[in-house]
């Protein structure tokens, strides 16, 4: 179990403008990630160090976005002005998570601009919708060389997550200590005053620490 990526919902200015704004702060351009046809969303990504990446995601005007929990989550966050959607944990085998949560994972896929198909399974987005401090889970079915974290320079890393929430609650959701997927990342927990979830993320860049 490890941190896979953090997800940021596009604001009213749309996917490209949001990605450009964040990219300017971090000193790197985001890459086109492609469309998630099953979820009615599309993304732009920025590879980070330690096999992680930052995703900016936008909902599409497509029926799938009304039906898929992920599309619903992205739409709700964007309609609220955009911002941090959540964090995602990668597991080597999603079956134990399915058993623990009592439901089946869904298949996800997207074609990169170069035509390469990326495939994964994911589960737990409904938990994120109900309680935004909770991550959801992915199991990558594509080769590790195709993971969205590849292709970066490695000079940008996630240094700290500021989360409004309860680490004990998150540990219960994960089925093990929250320190397991976040062992290399500093986490600052704050008591939620309003909606729980990611308050900010701090990135180590070539130009120093950047807080978003």
List keywords for this structure.
212 residues; alpha+beta; 2,3-Dihydroxybiphenyl 1,2-Dioxygenase, domain 1; 8-stranded mixed beta sheet
What does this protein look like?
The chain has 212 residues and is α+β, with helices and mostly antiparallel strands. It has a single domain (2-153), classed as 2,3-Dihydroxybiphenyl 1,2-Dioxygenase, domain 1 (Roll). The chain has helices spanning 15-26, 63-67, 69-79, 95-101, 125-130, 167-174, and strands at 2-9, 31-36, 41-47, 53-59, 83-90, 106-111, 117-123, 136-140, 157-164, 186-190, 197-205, 208-211. It has an 8-stranded mixed β-sheet with strand order 2-3-4-1-5-8-7-6. The chain has a 4-stranded mixed β-sheet with strand order 10-9-11-12, with no helix packed on it. The longest helix is centred in the N-terminal third of the chain and has 12 residues, at 15-26. The chain is globular, with a radius of gyration of 16 Å.
What is the compact description of this entry?
The chain is an alpha+beta fold and 212 residues long. The chain has helices at residues 15-26, 63-67, 69-79, 95-101, 125-130, 167-174; strands spanning 2-9, 31-36, 41-47, 53-59, 83-90, 106-111, 117-123, 136-140, 157-164, 186-190, 197-205, 208-211.
| CATH fold descriptor | 2,3-Dihydroxybiphenyl 1,2-Dioxygenase, domain 1
From the alpha-carbon coordinates, what is the Rg to the nearest angstrom? 16 Å
For the biggest sheet, the summary is: 8 strands, mixed
Spatially, the strands of the biggest sheet line up as 2-3-4-1-5-8-7-6
- Which geometry do the CA atoms define? globular
Number of helices in the DSSP assignment: 6
Instruction: Provide the succession of SSEs.
Output: EHEEEHHEHEEHEEHEEE
**What's the β-strand tally?**
12
- Uncertain residue ranges: none
Q: What distance separates the N and C termini?
A: 25 Å
In the residues, how many domains can be counted?
A: 1
CATH secondary-structure class: Alpha Beta
* % residues in beta strands: 35-45%
pLDDT averaged over residues: 93
CATH superfamily membership: 2,3-Dihydroxybiphenyl 1,2-Dioxygenase, domain 1
CATH architecture, by name, is Roll
Q: Which structural class should the secondary elements be placed in?
A: alpha+beta
Please estimate the helix content.
10-25%
């Amino acid at each position: 179990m490890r941190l896979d990526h953090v997800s940021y919902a596009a604001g009213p200015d749309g996917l490209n403008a949001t990605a450009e704004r964040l990219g300017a702060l971090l000193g790197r351009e985001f890459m086109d990630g492609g469309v998630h046809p099953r979820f009615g969303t599309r993304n732009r990504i920025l590879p980070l160090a330690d096999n992680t990446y930052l995703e900016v995601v936008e909902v599409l005007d497509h029926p799938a976005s009304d039906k898929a929990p992920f599309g619903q989550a992205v739409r709700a966050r964007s309609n609220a002005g955009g911002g941090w959607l959540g964090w995602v944990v990668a597991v080597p085998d999603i079956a134990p998570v399915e058993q623990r949560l009592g439901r089946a994972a869904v298949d996800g896929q997207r074609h990169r601009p170069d035509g390469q198909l990326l495939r994964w399974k994911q589960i737990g987005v409904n938990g994120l919708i109900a309680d935004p401090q909770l991550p959801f889970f992915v199991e990558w079915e594509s080769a590790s060389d195709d993971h969205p974290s590849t292709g970066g320079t490695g000079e940008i890393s996630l240094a700290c997550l500021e989360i409004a929430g309860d680490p004990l609650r998150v540990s219960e959701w994960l089925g093990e200590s929250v320190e397991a997927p976040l062992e290399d990342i500093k986490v600052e927990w704050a008591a939620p005053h309003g909606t729980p979830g990611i308050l900010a993320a701090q990135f180590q860049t070539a130009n120093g620490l950047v807080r978003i």
